[in-house]
Design goal:
The complex is a heterodimer of chains A (about 250) and B (about 325).
Chain A lengths: L11 E12 L2 E12 L3 E6 L5 H8 L7 E6 L2 E2 L5 H7 L1 E4 L11 H5 L6 E4 L2 E4 L1 H14 L16 H14 L4 E5 L7 H16 L3 E6 L2 H7 L2 E6 L2 E7 L5 H9 L3
Parallel strand pairs in A: 3-10, 3-11, 6-9, 9-10
Antiparallel strand pairs in A: 1-2, 1-4, 4-5, 7-8, 11-12
Helix pairs in contact in A: 5-6
Chain B lengths: L3 H4 L15 H6 L1 H6 L1 H16 L6 H26 L7 H17 L4 H24 L5 H20 L4 E2 L3 H8 L1 E2 L2 E2 H18 L2 H11 L1 H6 L4 H27 L1 E2 L5 H13 L12 H19 L6 H17 L4
Antiparallel strand pairs in B: 1-4, 2-3
Classes of the chains: A alpha/beta (about 250), B mainly alpha (about 325).
Chain lengths: ~250, ~325
């Protein structure tokens, strides 16, 4: 199995080549090539410490890689910080969700992207517009929320995850990156989040998914990339692989 | 908390409307009492003092009460912005003293009262800005930084004034202190204006949302691109600015700049914030709550004075009420 599976650049929305990152003497990953196709769900799997999360963090500008190139939409685009990546159209659903408990659902959905009305030199929040659009964003992804004026503190884990994903997808993002989106969820909530990811895909949003759950990855993704001990060791089409093969690739038994 | 949107009926995406809780359910809910502690306390005090000493409810006394509360209301607003970021400003009363002394010195030097007022407010705002920079850039806990500036600013005030009070005989300040418009004196209008401006800033601007987000979960706010350090520096600068306004009102009220800190102003500003239902852990704030808390503390002192209770008992009463309020706050949602 070849480690690098070449896709024509026009098909790749986010890609990297020869990417390396180390923290002091600890190598997170070395010489990694990765490509996420436009409109697909691309999964990155691997054991704990394989370098998945660090790779993703480099792609979205949280860490600056030590070497190699990152391509976004066919162009070399190293992101200096997450804000730049966000402006380019890459949204991240953080592992801790980055929600503010004391703010409402609508306030969280529009955090740092608030809609304002200009009154002379002053810019006042247009709460009505934000609430309306928040409802529209939620219903587009069929997320059931009793009220957008509810504080996030009172929501369940699944609802919180849904809001975080909705925020990421709702801003016209081209790529939504999710790090272990169902790690802390129950069975029903996991199913809801998976349905949400499928709906994103239907709306032609490219998704990059980091996961431990091989069954979930096979259910949701189109392409799977496998990392082991800081290297990208394989990539397979989800439809052409089995759970056993993935286990073998991740553990190195193949 | 008293966000207006919370009680408004909300139509949701294909879901049932949120039902409004009935009045009896509301009254049995301890978190209702926690949210409205300052209002309930104020009403309770007015009833008790009104019965015990009818003079308390006379127009003249109520006007005097509001006039006396104006300074504390302004300071409590400043403290609220800082506490909303999960910080605390212990240098508030010291900044008031420094502002007063700069006002007195510039006025005494003959530069005119308006420049004196402007420089006083600029100086206290600078103290707030310095607090914010030391806390964010220096990564020093707010408690330590503002304790340090409390001492530093006090010393600066003593050095500048030589420890002597400075008389300020300005007609402008005299008119500010004694004049009135409609039912209220000018200082009361200043406090009302401060409440309105602060309320709009907190609830109707991006800055307000970012302030609460920074106080709520600083890492999450940062992950979404909110510049949390700037927000914190702005909060401390607002606190310093409020200290400057309070300094003007104070000098106008007593007619001189005194080189001593009124520690009860600092403690009462924190107490008013707590009574007002603002979370000391940040992320949750209102302006009306602390303003009413400040009124309540002033009413307490005023009422006890009218009942001829020794002034020595006043700090005891304030302390008891604040601790009681903090206990009630535990039931907040």
């Amino acid at each position: 199995m070849s480690a690098v599976h070449h896709i024509p650049p026009s098909e790749a929305i986010l890609a990297c080549q020869g990417l390396s990152k180390h923290f002091g003497s600890i190598r997170a990953f070395t010489d990694v090539a990765f490509q996420a196709r436009r409109g697909e769900v691309t999964a990155v799997i691997g054991d704990n410490g394989a370098g998945k999360s660090t790779l993703i963090r480099c792609l979205v500008g949280v860490h600056v890689p030590d070497g190699g190139e990152i391509f976004f939409d066919g162009q070399p685009r190293p992101f200096a910080n997450p804000d730049e990546a966000r402006k380019a159209g890459i949204e991240t659903v953080h592992q801790n969700l980055a929600l503010i408990d004391e703010l409402t659902v609508a306030q969280n959905l529009f955090l740092n992207r608030e809609i304002v009305r200009r009154i002379g030199p002053f810019a006042l929040l247009d709460r009505k517009a934000m609430k309306q659009q928040a409802r529209a964003m939620l219903s587009r992804l069929s997320i059931n929320m009793p009220s957008v004026s509810q504080r996030v503190r009172r929501l369940s884990g699944g609802q919180r995850q849904a809001i975080s994903i909705c925020r990421a997808a709702g801003s016209g993002a081209k790529v939504v990156v999710m790090d272990e989106p169902t790690a802390a969820l129950g069975v029903q909530e996991t199913a809801n989040v998976e349905a949400l990811i499928r709906r994103l895909r239907e709306q032609a949003v490219s998704v990059i998914l980091v996961s431990h759950n091989f069954d979930q990855v096979r259910r949701l993704s189109d392409q799977i990339w496998v990392m082991r001990a800081g290297r990208m060791v394989a990539t397979v089409r989800s439809s052409e692989t089995t759970g056993n093969e993935l286990v073998a690739l991740v553990t190195g038994a193949a | 908390m008293s966000t207006p949107e919370q009680n408004a009926p909300v139509h949701t995406a294909g879901a049932a409307e949120e039902s409004r809780p009935s009045l009896s359910a509301l009254l049995l809910d301890p978190s209702f009492w926690a949210d409205w502690a300052s209002v309930v306390g104020l009403v309770g005090l007015v009833i008790v003092f009104g019965i015990a000493q009818p003079v308390f409810l006379s127009i003249a006394n109520l006007q005097a009460l509001l006039l006396a509360a104006a300074i504390l209301v302004v300071l409590s607003i400043g403290q609220t912005f800082v506490v909303a970021t999960a910080g605390i400003d212990l240098s508030l009363a010291a900044a008031v003293m420094l502002g007063a002394i700069i006002l007195g010195l510039v006025d005494a030097a003959g530069y005119g009262i308006f420049l004196a007022c402007a420089l006083a407010v600029a100086a206290t705002s600078a103290v707030g800005f310095l607090n914010g920079v030391l806390i964010t850039a220096g990564k020093i806990p707010d408690f330590v930084v503002t304790l340090g500036t409390l001492s530093g600013v006090t010393g600066l005030g003593l050095i500048l004034s030589g420890g002597e009070p400075i008389m300020v005989g300005s007609t402008f300040l005299l008119r500010l202190a004694s004049g009135s418009l409609g039912p209220f004196g000018y200082p009361v209008w200043v406090a009302i204006a401060a409440v309105i401006v602060a309320h709009i800033a907190l609830y109707h601007t991006r800055f307000g949302v970012h302030l609460l987000a920074t106080g709520g979960q600083v890492e999450s706010a940062g992950a979404l691109g909110i510049r949390t350090n700037r927000v914190k520096i702005a909060a401390y600068t607002i606190s310093g600015f409020c200290a400057g306004i309070a300094a003007l009102l104070l000098v106008a009220r007593i007619g001189s700049a005194e080189p001593q800190i009124n520690t009860s102003l600092l403690l009462n500003s924190v107490a008013a914030v707590v009574l007002g239902g603002v979370s000391l852990f940040g992320g949750r704030a209102s302006i009306l709550g602390p303003a009413i808390g400040a009124l309540m503390l002033t009413a307490l002192v005023n009422g006890l004075t009218l009942l001829s209770v020794s002034a020595f008992y006043q700090p005891l009463a304030v302390g008891a009420i604040v601790v009681l309020a903090a206990l009630i706050m535990r039931y907040q949602k």
